[in-house]
Specification:
Layout (H helix, E strand, L loop, with lengths): L2 E3 L2 E3 L4 E3 L2 H5 L5 E2 L5 H14 L4 E4 L3 H10 L3 E4 L4 E4 L8 E6 L5 H13 L3 E5 L8 H4 L2 H5 L3 E6 L5 H8 L4 E5 L11 H8 L7 E2 L5 H18 L1
Parallel strand pairs: 4-5, 8-9, 8-10, 10-11, 11-12
Antiparallel strand pairs: 1-2, 2-3, 5-7, 6-7
């Protein structure tokens, strides 16, 4: 029998942090891999019952999504992002641009954009503007400067984050991606290059973590709204 104690909801197989929405402006987000459709259904259902904001499940394959939505209707599935969403937030004024260096980076960029949109950020995307053709990113320079924050998704050597960081004054959230040839080391080269960027103040999240980038942008937006 589930019971609640100090904002923790005990489901035996999961301990739900039902106080997170009050602390951080968003209910706990569910990481899908390793969970059965039945477990996801129960967790998402309880989060919907105990919170008022959007409920998200990340990294979900299409078969699992279909099973979960059959049992817990009212949600939607974004196959490009692997994201299940119930009760998406209304869009508010915080503008986020998600920039990807190459077409191979699009799955990670799609996760960042879909998660950010689901939690209420006004999202636009810019695709395939890697530094091998620098004129491509310069063509959208003004658009990037008008954003409240920019997420930069790049593999290989990850240089696009430094380029964008030098062009704009808003927060830049860099996502290293596990694309590239051998010396890219499955994203480690991009990760280290982004950490070592000479463009001061760039935030760097984990390899392939479009979700982490979207959550960083959410925190920026939420903090701004709380202080407005």
């Amino acid at each position: 029998m589930p019971h609640t104690h100090t904002h923790v909801h005990d489901l035996d197989f999961a301990q739900l942090d039902i106080g997170r929405e009050r602390r951080q402006g968003l209910p706990e987000v569910v990481y899908g891999p390793g969970k059965t459709p039945g477990q996801i259904r129960v967790i998402a259902g309880e989060l919907l019952r105990h919170n008022s904001g959007p409920v998200l499940v990340t990294r979900v394959d299409a078969g699992t999504a279909t099973e979960v939505l059959d049992q817990l209707p009212g949600g939607s599935y974004d196959s490009s992002a692997g994201l299940l969403v119930w009760r998406p937030a209304a869009t508010h004024g915080f503008t986020l641009t998600v920039v990807s260096a190459g077409t191979s980076d699009l799955p990670v960029a799609a996760e960042a954009a879909a998660v950010a949109a689901a939690v209420g950020l006004a999202v636009t995307t810019v695709q395939d503007v890697g530094v091998a053709g620098l004129q491509r990113v310069l063509r959208v320079e003004e658009r990037l400067r008008e954003s409240d924050a920019v997420v930069v998704v790049a593999g290989m050597e990850g240089a696009l984050a430094s380029v964008v960081g030098g062009l704009v004054g808003c927060p830049v959230i860099a996502v290293p991606v596990s694309t590239g040839y051998g010396a890219s080391f499955a994203g480690v080269t991009a990760l280290l290059a982004m950490h070592a960027s000479c463009a001061a103040g760039i935030t760097v999240v984990n390899i392939d973590s479009g979700f982490g980038a979207a959550m960083a942008a959410h925190r920026l937006a939420w903090a701004g709204r709380r202080r407005a």
